[in-house]
Amino acid sequence: MLHSHLTTLNAVSLVLDAFSADGIHQQVLLAGSGIASADLHQPDTRITTRQEMRVCANAVALRRDLGLDLGQRMHVSSYGMLGYALLTSATFGDALRLALRYPALLGTLFELSLEEDGQRIWFTASDYREDPALAAFNIELCLVSLKVICDDLLGQPLPLLGARFDYPAPAYQARYRERFTCPLQFQAAGNAFAFDRHWLDQPLPLADAITHRAMAERCRKQNTEFTGRQAWLGRVRQLLASQLHAAPGLDRLAEQLNCSSRTLRRHLHDLGSSYQELLDELRFERAKQWLAEDAMPIHCIAEQLGFSETASFRHAFVRWSGVAPSQFRP
């Protein structure tokens, strides 16, 4: 099953804000995402990771170091109830452990963990499975935003002991020192930043036991609802993924899910998706996998994905990725 999930519009809104002073029209950044301008004014709107990444890809094409700037804008208040639950925790360690309990509410694309290394604690982001072309952007965004959250919780900058990244130093690596004032290591074994373990016991300046209990309970309920919706979407994806060679269509898929096509369409719309978007996403993921393995001819891939003509597949792949299937091969 795809490592894809629902998230909020926080990151998309920040992308649009980052370009608002540059005269870049919203539609340029939203192109191909299926997100309408009206969606931006609905606070409860949920979108898929694929939609968020389409906007980010449009933005990174205009500004390569965007992840460093976006991460700096993602304060703890960007995370709604979870943000308030973190701020009112008793200690810094309590807040971090609560954040790790609800990754769906953080909207992260990574598996986050706290790893002990003697007196150091490494705040680690691993298990990234999205678009490889956006890996550096997403790692920058993730680690910088986590550092900002840490600073917000403490009410002061968290002193870092080191930061490491699993890719080569980019041309703009000097900008990393603006965000991580510590020794940097590129082409490392993982992606993380470290701080002294004594900070875990640091009392938080905005700690409030009563407010914290109320916010933590609301987070628990929201997470249950949120993950339930993700599980349903995962079931739809899994069912559709098993039939890519002969896609069933919306009506037949609804029958397989024991619901009406109208209900299925409405649920997908509420989750920021559609039948065609799911089908395209699954075809794209499978196509990338087979092309990377370099064992199956392109015309066979087209056939297995349900395309009646190889030319139709080539056209679709260019629309999805910006390059022809032959160019995607290793």
TrEMBL record:
<protein>
    <submittedName>
        <fullName>AraC family transcriptional regulator</fullName>
    </submittedName>
</protein>
<dbReference type="InterPro" id="IPR032687">
    <property type="entry name" value="AraC-type_N"/>
</dbReference>
<keyword id="KW-0805">Transcription regulation</keyword>
<dbReference type="Pfam" id="PF12833">
    <property type="entry name" value="HTH_18"/>
</dbReference>
<dbReference type="Pfam" id="PF12625">
    <property type="entry name" value="Arabinose_bd"/>
</dbReference>
<dbReference type="InterPro" id="IPR018060">
    <property type="entry name" value="HTH_AraC"/>
</dbReference>
<dbReference type="GO" id="GO:0005829">
    <property type="term" value="C:cytosol"/>
</dbReference>
<dbReference type="GO" id="GO:0000976">
    <property type="term" value="F:transcription cis-regulatory region binding"/>
</dbReference>
<feature type="domain" description="HTH araC/xylS-type">
    <location>
        <begin position="234"/>
        <end position="330"/>
    </location>
</feature>
<keyword id="KW-0238">DNA-binding</keyword>
<dbReference type="GO" id="GO:0003700">
    <property type="term" value="F:DNA-binding transcription factor activity"/>
</dbReference>
<dbReference type="InterPro" id="IPR009057">
    <property type="entry name" value="Homeodomain-like_sf"/>
</dbReference>
<keyword id="KW-0804">Transcription</keyword>
